[in-house]
Amino acid sequence: METKAMLLELRKRLGLSQEEMAEKLFVTRQAVSRWENGETVPGIDTLKTISKAFAVPISSLLGLEENQLCLFRQSSFTFSYRVAGILVQHGKVLLQKPKNTDEYAFPGGHVRFGETTAEALTRRWREETGLAIEVGVLKWVEENLFLWDGKPCQQVCLDYLVRLQEAAGAALPDGFPARTHLEDAPDAVCFHWIPLGEVQNLTVYPERAALLLQQLDAPVQHLAYLEDGAKRP
Question: Theoretical Cys-Cys bridge with 210: which of 10, 113, 178, 199, CB 3.0 to 4.6 Å?
């Protein structure tokens, strides 16, 4: 939720008029009106005052998700900061795929504010797969621009090599569901062991995944993906 919507919702929840809210914050009614219309955004000192006066985290006022994900949704676009892990063993790679699509991706998720990428990746794999991993070297830096829920999404994704801390992970079955998704939901995520030789026959992001998986000894690679219709004119 945008800052302007957060401030409007906060004022209405407290039952305050714009004049009353302005008085509590030592600003003018016009300033409150401009915030709520999205014409201006409160400065950091004012945000601190709002946070203290109404017991609201600054992160909420800035539109951060309650779980502090680095996923910022605006009225016309979204920004996403993601991290993913590349796990290859016994000639197979672990990929994730929602049940309602045929598109695969490398397991991972959004970084939380204040986390390192290694911490985020370790947390996300534990949440989703129950697996304890060790994060290795950075392999790919992705810049993606695509449509998400009909709006352009600009995403930065860092892909690292990972390995399992426990050998028991090698016995994981194919198609096991993510722990944080309902198994019967149409968009529930499942994880699949895909033979490296079959990756080229599937839709896997990032693009050229089959070739990239053959070049894991290469230096860090920069990958750019632009989906038709996602870039603003």
Answer: 199
Strands (E), the chain: 71-73, 78-86, 88-89, 92-98, 103-105, 108-110, 133-148, 151-164, 176-177, 189-195, 203-205, 221-226
Residue 180 identity: T
Q: Please indicate whether residue 233 or residue 21 has the higher confidence score (pLDDT).
A: 21
Kindly tell me the burial class for residue 77, based on how many C-beta atoms sit within 10 Å of its own C-beta (0-12, 13-18, 19 or more): middle
Structural domains in the chain, CATH included, are 3-61 (1.10.260.40), 71-226 (3.90.79.10)
CA separation (Å) from 230 to 152, 185, 209? 5, 27, 22
d(CA 169, CA 160): 18
Q: Which residue has the tokens 């992001």?
A: 205
User: How large is the angle between the packed helices 3-14 and 18-25, nearest 10 degrees?
Assistant: 100
| Dist CA 12 CA 8 (whole Å) | 6
Query: pLDDT of 74-123, one tens digit each?
Result: 878 899 999 999 999 889 999 999 888 899 999 999 998 889 999 999 99
Question: Do residues 62 and 48 make contact, with C-beta atoms less than 8 angstroms apart?
Answer: no
Q: What is d(CA 223, CA 159) in angstroms, rounded to the nearest whole number?
A: 11
pLDDT at 83: 98
Segment holding 5, helix H or strand E: helix 3-14
Can you tell me the distance from the alpha carbon of 181 to that of 186, in angstroms, rounded to the nearest whole number? 10
